[in-house]
Design a protein that fits this description.
Blueprint (H helix, E strand, L loop, with lengths): L1 E4 L5 E4 H13 L4 H20 L11
């Protein structure tokens, strides 16, 4: 088993962790928050392709 990462954020899994991750990707069910986040990302990507810019505003979570 090994988990290796780089300063650029890449992660390499091996052994049981790799097998578990592969099963999760293949058979896992995404959470509602992940689905919504992907939809928002798709909308931002479409807007960027059309206009060449997007506006992302931070919100206070407290």
């Amino acid at each position: 088993m090994a988990v290796k990462s780089t300063v650029f954020g890449g992660v390499v899994l091996s052994g049981q962790e790799a097998e578990t991750f592969r099963r999760q990707v293949t058979y896992g069910r995404p959470k509602k928050a992940a689905i919504e986040s992907a939809r928002k990302g798709d909308r931002l990507g479409t807007e960027f392709e059309k206009t060449g810019q997007v506006v992302v505003r931070a919100r206070n979570t407290k």
